[in-house]
Amino acid sequence: MARISEKMKNEIRQLYGQYNKRQLATMFNVNIKTVRRVLNGKPEPKKKEQDYYDGVPDITHWTGRIGKCPECGCMVYLPCLACKIRQIQCHNKGVI
Length: 96
Ligand SMILES: [Zn+2]
Known about the structure:
Strand order of the largest sheet: 1-2
Strand content: 5-15%
Radius of gyration: 14 Å
Number of domains: 2
Oligomer: single chain
Bound molecules: zinc ion
Distance between the termini: 25 Å
Structural class: mainly alpha
């Protein structure tokens, strides 16, 4: 089971409703059980982070650097989460 970050859990909770669990699982590249667990607020099994980060676009890594987002022009912690989510949503519209 993939381990996911707090950031991703928050995103999943925020996007749930707009998307169903299966779509969220696809978007975040996690098992649907993981999505269910996040939404139920259950603790996740301990597993090393590497399992998740292998081969997955990294939307959870923050450099801690504040800068101007090249896409939306806002001063944000890079990379810009808002633009990442927009990308995911656009991508998702194309797929579904
Ligand atoms: Zn942005």
